[in-house]
Design goal:
The complex is a heterodimer of chains A (973) and B (354). Chain A is an alpha/beta fold and 973 residues long. Helix content of chain A is 28%, strand content 17%. Chain A contains 31 helices and 33 strands. In chain A, the strands form seven sheets. In chain A, strands 23, 24, 25, 26, 27, 28, 29, 30, 31, 32 and 33 form an eleven-stranded mixed β-sheet that branches. In chain A, helix 23 packs across helix 24. Chain B has 354 residues and is an all-alpha fold. Chain B contains 20 helices and no strands. Classes of the chains: A alpha/beta (973), B mainly alpha (354).
Chain lengths: 973, 354
């Protein structure tokens, strides 16, 4: 026998005893029915087909395929043009997963290959009504992103070293489930779920409750905490819901027509309102597209918005042109009058509404148009015109603030409070054309089997210094860890990139690398991001068409729910195929959280001894874990009013109805619900018990006893007032070259860190130059395209400048979203949308980021990736932002004092970032000193007013401060 | 030839197929010991898998045979059609038909069905035609386990192909490479004969194993660059090689680079001969040897021309290689520095030396 023959014989002999598992991988039925690896634009064989056509009696063209044709829609293959090649599609509705608006999408799933050809709008969706912004259809770009993570990965080397191995979902579930179990057995604050925009309404919170831990950590404090606090202190509900379409006046703080919080649903209704004659007033220091479309643009100096709003309020009060009856009936003015002598040095014994009106006039007399014009640096005529428009709107004033000034400024929560003051004065609360509150327009169904509240309080989430925060102080987590306040056993970052999006990112880098304080980091993400690079597990989760979620938003005056679906799975099931888990249908092994949570919870408590497993078991199959069909079927059967009847009318089950349409309208309108007669509870108004508001008084709280009780006793905190911002002109020494950095305006085409995997979107906007007024540019000697160095309190960055008249002098502005980077050439991000970078820790807190290479084309199965014509993908400015936690709302006050702005010197390169984290901690401590701790100010020994919202409320017992002194000692030490 | 029965051979192919397809998910320790001695670390094997097949040398016939190096072209189609002729191909929506693991799954199925001879013909034409060259590229990486697996794979295929001699099918032994008519010339190219050839073209040629006979992984590119103090570059292999060649020209080390690459080519030729010895008829390698010889010739010419060129600072009076490099830069201007090179070219004229 030759050497070769003997080697082969030895090999065959060695494997001879092996069993059936050594069959070739493809010998049995394929394990992934819809394709497992990189998605390909595979094609079905061409069958002769007729194009589906819809004929209307009046000859109109059809805008959308009608739902009755969604099961088999035939249209020409656009890529085969000029040949007319028909393709059969199953049209499956789903919900966009980019921004928070929850717009409807309709996926065109090829019936032969189950590839998704495109995403268009869902015409049945009550919020978006078939219309989408650029981000909706770009979902296709994200699904077929060649750089997306397709398999579960486990870290092999050190954190951040970039070495990964593929693991199976089974291995992930075993390991993560075991570590969750171990943590839960030790304590109830060791598991942390840190979520970006949730994109769903109750599912994960239910899971966290079932685990029995205080584990929810949101991104709210870098987003909407200021606005939420302002609205909640008035009404007990923390979000506005303007009825733009029916308004007579629309008052926006920032650019909601083009980029706002519910951008697409709001934009279309603002346009409808305008078409109906509404006047649009916009406050924004930047000439945004919204500002340019406004009837009145007020380019206010940041932080002066409250003063302008109170000047308008004062105008209405002075002229008695406000809705006096509404204020009399619904404002807690009696409570105010009782307090007035103590807090406002007003005479005692005043009890009538007329007394209150006189007090109002006296209190707000100082807010003149002249003062407002001076502080805002806006022509007085424009403020006067805005006031006239508001006055003429009557009870049809639709007003909105969300991020912008409310999250920008120290005391920004008062911006929301002052804005809603105008709604209250005009009586446009919940009226047609007015401003509702989100709880009236958003519908969250009761979950299947609700677990009880947990008995725990995680001090890393809501420490005693911020008893009124909305909500968890998530952006300070690294600073808390630095202070040794705690440690985390299992940290889930969920579709979130804390290191990139939060201020002071180098502090996050330190925390993410610390395996002692953050013991296990599991990144649940559809795509690579800077934080996931430092995780222990990177677990691929689905995009819009690859997951189950239920979602509702207050997009207008009605109520609806939207059902996000894994569209390939649904199309396959329509065709009669069985799919057990969504990752069998998604590209690669991309999964969805809804199923992942069920499975990992099952592994966390396999025998039910922790009392967790029961919440994840099937109602139909005892002992087995619940399926998605069972879960959502139960919800739709039991918790959505009107849905069972609507489904029955079509001969469908409620679940079938939702799978077919992807949405359901519960109420077309829902005006003034607080006026409803209350059968129990409620508040008495003119002798009648009405539903009222979920505040302690049941009324709208002009005067806030809560603020008074928790240590904020000064007049400017207890009623709508103007607080002095940290970027007030007094704090910006422009003579010395200081400027105000406005770092957080949005672009309509991107969404923070979630869209850097969409080439189509980056083609539209890919860089974030520094906006600078021509007068400032002239002073600094720079022209458009020159590099400037912007120095903040803790570091500096280098970026190109864009010289424009569209920004207020003294302010430099940069958009959010851009400046993404990766640390490896071939992994960690898309080469066209991220820069290749290096991180340097130079010791003594000195950290630097340098760009090695900007965006560039790269070759993949998608020829579009080679067509990258830009190099500048922006500058990661957030790294240089010191943390600014507002002492009341807990919001990170995004506006920055730019201590120096100058032309870059030779050797300073675009994208360079340098930060001194010793200064980071100093800035943190400066703001920490502004707080008023529950330890000193809690009126009842609790950590937080029970009536204030939390994403997940623990039991009442957990609200008790355990031992104030002990807690204080442990924190101070 | 071993005296393996068709069932044994089917099992052998099946085991190898599963390893090549699913190795990223782990390897049964008892199976791992068949290929290497001593303790095996599961994480290490998975990591090696990614380094070998995801990041190193893609285990597709197309990567070695297509002029573009891209999967899904003529090579994939020819193999897919050939598979289909022998029966239903293994179902996979995730991998193209020319993946080594898919090919072995097909061979396993054929052997199990008793069609060993047909399978051997298939193996000779569509596996043995590129697997040796593939192995020489893989052996340059630090992935010992997967090199061992691939060597066994080559042994099994070689042993199987020997069946053909016994079956009186000797003609197959000498023509066992993918048909040149279908897949372009198997002969070496003289790319420098074209006056328009620039460094980008040379890089494109070297990056294509189907044309140059040489598959250079990213890691190898770095190994060549480092001793010459050249940047290892970014991006695709073509881009890296172009950066390498441009930098070498820029810093007057192109002759040394060509010599270094020439040494690599010679090493591959030598290794291919070693692999053939005792395994299969060297005639299987003729196409590869022709391509490698042509590449060697190209590198020598390029190196000689570069060595004859005046150093960069004196290039204003040169009409030799340096001017040609500059001429190419003008044609492919993308960066600022390239623009200045283009201006330099206009000053010296654009005569092509090769």
């Amino acid at each position: 026998m030759t050497d070769l023959a003997s080697r082969v014989a030895k090999f065959l002999g060695a494997i001879g005893g092996r069993g059936a598992s050594d069959e070739p991988a493809f010998e049995s039925k394929q394990t992934n029915v819809a394709g497992k690896a990189l998605p390909v634009y595979s094609r079905a064989p061409i069958d002769p087909k007729r194009l589906t056509t819809v004929q209307h009696p009046d000859g109109r063209m059809s805008t959308y395929p009608p739902p009755e044709a969604w099961d088999d829609w035939v249209e020409w293959d656009s890529q085969a043009w000029p040949k007319k090649v028909p393709r059969n599609y199953s049209l499956v509705p789903t919900i966009c997963f980019n921004c928070e608006s929850a717009c409807g999408l309709l996926a065109y799933v090829d019936k032969k290959t189950y590839e998704v050809r495109k995403f268009e709008g869902n015409p049945k969706h009550p919020g978006s009504r078939g219309r989408n912004c650029a981000k909706g259809p770009a979902t296709h770009n994200q699904v077929y992103d060649p750089e997306r993570i397709l398999h579960p990965l486990k870290r092999v080397g050190k954190r951040g070293e970039g070495k990964w191995k593929r693991v199976t979902w089974d291995e992930v579930l075993d390991d993560v489930g075991a570590q969750m179990r171990a943590s839960r057995q030790r304590r109830r604050d060791g598991i942390m779920y840190h979520v970006g925009r949730p994109g769903e309404d109750h599912y994960t919170n239910r899971c966290i409750s079932a685990w029995g831990v205080d584990g929810h950590n949101s991104h709210t404090n870098i987003c909407s905490a200021g606005a939420r606090a302002g609205y909640a202190l008035w009404s007990g509900i923390d979000r506005p819901s303007p009825d733009h379409a029916n308004a007579r006046a629309i008052l926006l703080i920032s650019s909601h027509l083009e980029t706002g919080h519910y951008f697409n649903p709001h934009a279309q209704r603002i346009i409808e309102g305008k078409l109906g004659g509404a006047k649009l007033i916009t406050m924004d220091p930047r000439l945004s597209n919204t500002a340019s479309s406004s009837d009145v643009w007020l380019p206010t100096w940041p932080g002066s918005e409250s003063t302008v709003l109170l000047a308008i309020a004062s105008y209405l009060i002075r002229r008695r042109s406000y809705n006096r009856d509404f204020v009399r009936r619904w404002v807690n003015w009696e409570e105010f009058l009782r307090e007035a002598p103590k807090t406002f040095q007003l005479p005692s014994g005043k009890t009538s509404f007329a007394d209150f009106e006189r007090c109002l006039e006296e209190l707000y007399a100082e807010f003149t148009f002249e003062r407002a014009a001076r502080e805002a640096q806006v022509p007085i005529e424009r403020i006067e015109e805005a006031a006239r428009i508001v006055e003429q709107a009557g009870d049809r004033l639709a007003a909105h603030t969300w991020r912008a000034a409310s999250i920008g400024n120290l005391g920004g929560w008062q911006v929301a409070r002052c804005l809603f003051f105008l709604n209250v004065l005009t009586g446009s609360v919940g009226t047609k054309g007015g401003t509702s509150l989100n709880a009236w327009n958003k519908f969250v169904p009761k979950p299947f089997k609700k677990p009880p509240a947990f008995n725990a309080w995680n001090e890393l989430h809501l420490p005693h210094e911020w008893p009124l925060a909305f909500f968890e102080m998530s952006f300070l987590l690294p600073h808390f860890l630095e202070e040794e306040r705690g440690e985390i056993d299992v940290y889930f970052s969920r579709v979130y990139n804390p290191m990139w999006i939060n201020p002071d990112g180098f502090m996050w880098l330190k925390a993410l690398q610390d395996t002692q304080k953050m013991k296990l980091h599991v990144a649940l993400t559809p795509t690579w991001n800077e934080s996931a690079w430092f995780a222990d597990y990177v677990l691929p989760m689905g995009h819009a068409g690859e997951r189950h979620d239920l979602m509702s938003q207050e997009t207008h005056a009605g109520q609806w729910i939207g059902f996000r679906q894994p569209v390939r799975r649904v199309a396959m099931e329509r065709a009669g195929q069985k799919v057990k888990h969504t990752h069998e249908a998604n590209p690669g092994e991309v999964w969805e959280e809804a199923e992942f949570w069920v499975e990992v919870s099952g592994r966390m408590d396999p025998d039910g001894s922790l009392g967790i497993r029961q919440w994840f078991e099937s109602p139909e199959r005892p002992g087995e874990l619940i399926s998605q069909d069972e879960y959502w079927g139960y919800i739709f059967d039991h918790s959505v009013p009107g849905l069972p009847d609507a489904a029955k009318a079509e001969g469908l089950t409620p679940l079938q109805y939702m799978r077919k349409y992807g949405c359901f309208e519960i109420k077309a309108t829902n005006y003034v619900p607080y006026e409803q007669i209350a059968s129990e509870g409620g508040v008495e108004v003119d002798g009648v018990k009405r539903r009222g508001f979920p505040t302690p008084s049941g009324k709208l709280e002009f005067f806030s006893p809560t603020m008074r009780d928790w240590g904020w006793t000064e007049p400017e905190y207890v009623i709508p007032w103007s607080l002095k911002s940290h970027v007030h002109p007094d704090h910006i020494d422009r003579e010395r070259g200081e400027m105000l950095l406005l770092p957080n305006f949005r672009l309509p085409t991107l969404i923070h860190t979630r869209s850097a995997n969409a080439k189509w979107l980056y083609e539209i906007s890919h860089n974030n130059p520094v906006w600078m007024h021509v007068s400032d540019a002239s002073r600094l000697g720079v022209e458009t395209g020159d590099l400037v160095r912007v120095e903040t309190e803790i570091g500096h960055f280098i970026d190109k400048v864009w010289v424009t008249e569209g920004i207020k002098p003294g302010i430099v502005a940069m958009s959010h979203h851009l400046g993404r980077w990766r640390l490896q050439e071939s992994s960690g991000g898309s080469p066209g949308m991220t820069a290749l970078a290096t991180l340097e820790d130079k010791g003594d807190g000195q950290n630097e980021l340098h760009i090695v290479k900007g965006g560039s084309g790269w070759k993949t199965f998608d020829p579009d990736t080679s067509r990258i014509w830009w190099k500048d993908v922006g500058v990661h400015q957030n790294l240089t932002h010191g943390v600014h936690p507002d002492p009341v709302s807990g919001a990170h006050c995004w506006l920055q004092r730019a201590v120096n702005v100058r032309k870059a010197e030779p050797g300073e390169r675009h994208g360079d970032v340098s930060v001194d984290t010793r200064k980071s901690m100093a800035v943190y401590r400066k703001w920490l000193a502004l707080t008023r701790s529950a330890l000193e100010h809690s009126p009842d020994g609790t950590r937080r007013p029970m009536w204030l919202k939390r994403p997940l409320k623990p039991v009442a017992e957990a609200y008790q401060l355990p031992n104030g002194n002990a807690l204080r000692r442990s924190v101070v030490s | 030839m071993s005296d393996a029965g068709s069932t044994d051979r089917a099992r052998g192919y099946a085991v190898l197929s599963r390893l090549l397809l699913d190795g990223a998910h782990g390897v049964d320790p008892s199976l791992a010991k068949v290929f290497v001695e001593g303790p095996v670390d599961d994480a290490e094997l998975r990591s090696q898998y990614v380094a070998a097949f995801d990041l190193g040398v893609p285990p597709y016939a197309s990567a070695l045979l297509e002029s573009t190096g891209r999967v899904g072209g003529a090579v994939t189609r020819v193999i897919s059609d050939a598979m289909a002729e022998q029966g239903p191909p293994p179902q996979s929506e995730q991998l193209a038909a020319d993946h080594l693991g898919v090919l072995f799954a097909h061979l396993a199925r054929q052997c199990r069905a008793g069609r060993e001879t047909e399978a051997a013909r298939f193996a000779a034409s569509y596996v043995l035609s590129w697997l040796p060259a593939y192995l020489t590229a893989l052996e340059r990486l630090s992935v010992p386990f997967w090199i061992a697996v691939t060597r066994v794979a080559l042994d099994v295929v070689s042993d199987h192909v020997r069946l053909l001699a016994g079956a009186g099918d000797a003609a197959e032994l000498g023509s066992a490479e993918l048909g040149s008519a279908e897949l372009g010339s198997a002969a070496g190219e003289a790319i420098l004969a074209n006056r328009g050839t620039g460094l980008r073209d040379v890089a494109e040629y070297l990056a294509s194993a189907g044309r140059s006979g040489l598959f250079m992984s990213d890691a190898e590119c770095s190994l060549v660059a480092r001793p010459l103090d050249l940047p290892r570059g970014f991006g695709s292999r073509r881009q890296r090689l172009e950066t390498l060649l441009r930098s070498a020209a820029e810093y007057d080390v192109l002759p040394a680079l060509c010599q270094s690459l020439g040494t690599m080519v010679a090493g591959r030729e030598e290794r291919l001969r070693e692999l053939a010895e005792g395994r299969f008829d060297p005639s299987h390698l003729e196409g590869w040897m022709r391509k490698l010889a042509a590449t060697q010739q190209t590198l020598e010419e390029l190196g000689s021309a570069a060595a004859g060129a005046t150093p960069r600072e004196d290039r204003s009076s040169s009409v030799a290689f340096g001017s040609r490099v500059a001429a190419h830069d003008e044609r492919t201007t993308e960066e600022g520095w390239a623009s200045s090179k283009a201006r330099e070219t206009q000053a010296i004229g654009g005569e092509s030396c090769c």
